[in-house]
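note to self — DONT lose this again. spent like an hour looking for the file last time. sequence + predicted structure for the chain T wanted, 134 res
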Amino acid sequence: MEVSSGMAEFFGEYRHSMDAKGRLAIPARILAAAGTPFYISVSEDKCLNIYSREEWQKLAEEFKLLIGIEKRDTVRRFYAATQIYETTDKQGRIVLTTKLRKYADLEGERSVVIAGAGQYAEIWDEARWDELDI
């Protein structure tokens, strides 16, 4: 699946189970918007964000504008936590790293919500998502 030349837009709310190994099915509509490769990183909201290549490149350009210690800390945290996914398994699943799962409180077998957020999608623990009352 190639990234389209247009801007990716992520819509919808999807509820899925993640197993204890961190395997999580990514909805087909989210995969279509993300294209390949797609990137998953940490969010300030203690969830995970899914970015298309184009959106990730925009973020990388924004990082270049940061200055001083703010730049080092932000760039270091963001890039170190990011995983690049070239493909899914036959069931449309990816494996979230231990680091990503720990950051977003997604450890162990659990229900998660994958929600569109415009230029990216978010991965939330289902209970925390439901607390947002969206």
